């Protein structure tokens, strides 16, 4: 990235002076849009405008797609209206929709007026789909062709309209009524005899998704089949857009972030970390902290009911944090593994008993190991043999108990159509804390004959 | 998927009888390789072999790519050697490598002997790269062209070699020595004048990755720039392969799974859940459970040292699980958010003080809220005003303390080049358990004047 740093430095001087170094401009034109956008962020808006005019329309539009909507709007609003109109038309339609939804409605209105009537209608239509559905993710910048066209005709068509399309690797083939007929890859069209009609080239067993499909489902279809893009259809099975893989990568990342935050016991943040205000962090976190605090307070009631036991053998209270902590740790390991396995489809509710059996067996071995270690540790601390024995047995049974509860809960929640990620590490810890105490105290009373 | 179910049912009878229904075969030929592979899993190997022979070579090879390596080998080993050889040649080279690495070395040797000498050499070379690097992910089935070729020549070349290439949407342009010169999209070649040389069409500011680049870095490059594929080069900057987007989607999913499992306090599983044996689950989990159990045992020592305090006011011990649980929950919320933010690059070590400040402030508000609730809860339980006051203060300070520790730890670990995901929810809980107890007992001694 030393190249980028060099460009940035040179730029500051360049456009102030009159001589425009062609070498530098050449360099700029060769740079990746993402890298140019990174440089843009550090420049003031006049320099940005100056720069944009030196790039090709396609290149400039791509750079704008990588900028934050507010910056893009600020820049566009300072340019000549004709240029602005051309740039927006060149941008990928899903990006235009994101831009229009992010800025003020009046600003959005103003931008839309610069678009040709038919494109404006398309964009307006796109803006009606919820953000997290196939309709919200899709772009209308694809190439479609009629089933009766020959390969030759299709390539001529691509030559004509290809400039505005986001991808041309797949050509979507429709019938006379606009219904999705099939998909042909550009590779297949080129490899076929030029006179072959598309209806003979295209695959007709096509996977498509309705516009209202959730983004998670779209991501799973696309990654399952290894597609570059998946077509989106309306209720009449008419082709209305495509979702490309780069949007899906973003969705996958977002969903993983949400799952991780939920597993941590917080409501997922809707903005990046530093854009989230302290007040917003507070609200996202206090919900579960409050529920867990109030719910967890029953542990105090449990302990109170064993007051006489604790009074008689104070040493028992020393091991409370260790034992309930171990139950929580075991639970946390299991629920995170299962939530993810449910998320990627490796495990389903029907596997309930298989999962419980597996976790029960694993839990027994883990419990025996930790029980043994617990005995040694307590013994070293100098408590009586009986107390050490109680600690060992309690460690074992708490781990086994926690294993079964943690195996069952996420699967049962998924069956109830609830999000299994609700069973966060903190929730399972809190749940097994109280029951763990009961196990501990019951064993103590039995062994110590209190 | 009713189509798939229908096909599966019909298939069982079909090949046993002599009449081969052309309609069914037509249906099979139109199906997605992924769906066909799903059906294949339920069929016995003779039927699989029969079926394969009815598909086109390209289609059959793709189906094989979706099967588990062991099944693919079993199937291939029962086919005619010529067919096997053709199928392997048609398969994507990265898939062939995965297959050869997964089966027994002797079996792999046998399969390799069926390949033409030059392709065998390429595959042997590919097998030397570690699985989780660019070299391990890449395929050699791309189209490369010389910089001096015209667009027309290039398209003729694609027609000739395109059948074996995995993608032809990008043409990789090299100079005479095989060094990467640039990339031209098929779209650009088609849109350009047929006489233009590739050197004028290709973009030369290309992003490529060295073969030894880690898979996470490759995924991040590809998704950052929204590329369809990224070229892989050797130390002499010679083009040796490409990594395509579908592999990257897999890598992103894998990495998210690993992070989630680590956050849960387990070593990441290397296989899907049901393929992981109980013994393997045990080993992955016992490591951290053991460390946390032995480490967490210091809480017993802490409590022992406050034995006289606990003896005097037994009620104090009732709130131990609640208070340390709350500290752990707060910590778990923060570390999961920060680990993910570090993972996707939203937060860096340089932001340490900004993060601490943000978490400290949020922690103060959360602490005050929970302190208030804690006071009410303890009061309702009927403990003395003083004890309730101690619980409230302890809740507040424990939350604040846990916030600061949890904010600092993941960032410091990332600075030390350690994986911040090591700071799992269970680890941070264990860490703040003991310190939380010290805070609680210190406040108790001060307020209750013990």
Automatic annotation (TrEMBL), chains A, B:
It comes from the Bacteria. It is found in: Cell membrane; Membrane. One of its GO terms (cellular component) is plasma membrane. Its main location: membrane. It is a multi-pass membrane protein. The keyword Thylakoid does not apply. Residues 202-258 form the CBS domain. Keywords: CBS domain, Cell membrane, Magnesium, Membrane, Metal-binding, Transmembrane, Transmembrane helix, Transport. It holds the Pfam family MgtE_N. InterPro entries: CBS_dom, CBS_dom_sf, Mg_transptr_MgtE_intracell_dom, MgtE_N_sf, MgtE_transporter, SLC41_membr_dom, SLC41_membr_dom_sf. SMART domains: CBS, MgtE_N. GO terms for molecular function: magnesium ion transmembrane transporter activity; metal ion binding. The chain crosses the membrane at residues 286-306, 318-339, 360-381, 387-413, 425-448. Belongs to the SLC41A transporter family. NCBIfam families: mgtE. Homodimer. Acts as a magnesium transporter. This is Magnesium transporter MgtE. It comes from Thermoactinomyces intermedius.
């Amino acid at each position: 990235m030393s190249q980028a740093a060099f460009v940035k430095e040179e730029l500051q001087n360049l456009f102030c002076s009159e001589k425009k170094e062609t070498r530098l401009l050449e360099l700029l034109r060769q740079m990746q849009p993402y890298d140019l956008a990174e440089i843009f962020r550090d420049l003031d808006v006049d320099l940005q405008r100056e720069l944009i005019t030196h790039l090709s329309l396609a290149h400039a539009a791509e750079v704008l797609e990588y900028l934050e909507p507010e910056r893009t709007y600020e820049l566009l609003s300072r340019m000549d209206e004709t240029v602005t109109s051309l740039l927006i038309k060149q941008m990928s339609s899903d990006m235009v929709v994101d831009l229009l939804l992010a800025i003020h409605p009046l600003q959005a209105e103003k931008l839309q007026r610069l678009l040709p009537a038919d494109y404006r209608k398309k964009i307006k239509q796109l803006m009606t789909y919820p953000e997290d559905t196939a309709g919200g993710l899709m772009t209308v910048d694809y190439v479609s062709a009629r089933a009766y066209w020959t390969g030759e005709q299709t390539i001529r068509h691509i030559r004509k309209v290809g400039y505005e399309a986001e991808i041309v690797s797949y050509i979507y083939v429709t019938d006379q009524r606009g219904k999705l007929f099939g998909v042909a890859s550009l590779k297949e069209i080129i490899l076929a005899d030029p006179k072959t009609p598309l209806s003979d080239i295209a695959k007709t067993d096509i996977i498509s998704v309705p516009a209202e499909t959730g983004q998670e489902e779209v991501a799973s279809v696309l990654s399952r089949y290894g597609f570059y893009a998946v077509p989106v259809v309306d209720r009449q099975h008419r082709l209305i857009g495509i979702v490309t893989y780069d949007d899906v990568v973003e969705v996958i990342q977002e969903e993983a972030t949400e799952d991780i935050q939920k597993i941590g016991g917080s409501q997922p943040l809707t903005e990046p970390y530093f854009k989230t205000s302290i007040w917003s962090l507070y609200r996202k976190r206090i919900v579960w902290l409050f529920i867990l605090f109030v719910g967890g307070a029953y542990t105090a009631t449990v302990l109170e009911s064993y007051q006489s036991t604790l009074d008689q053998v104070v040493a028992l209270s020393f091991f409370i944090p260790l034992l309930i902590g171990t139950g929580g740790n075991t639970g946390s390991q299991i629920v995170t593994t299962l939530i993810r396995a449910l998320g990627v489809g490796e495990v389903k509710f029907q596997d309930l008993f298989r999962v419980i059996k597996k976790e029960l067996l694993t839990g027994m071995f883990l419990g025996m190991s930790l029980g043994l270690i617990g005995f040694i540790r307590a013994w070293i601390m100098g408590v009586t043999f009986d107390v050490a024995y109680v600690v060992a047995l309690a460690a074992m049974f708490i781990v086994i108990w926690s294993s079964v509860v943690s195996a069952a809960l996420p699967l049962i929640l998924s069956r109830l159509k609830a999000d299994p990620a609700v069973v966060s590490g903190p929730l399972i810890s809190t749940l097994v804390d109280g029951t763990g105490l009961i196990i501990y105290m019951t064993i103590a009373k039995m062994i110590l004959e209190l």
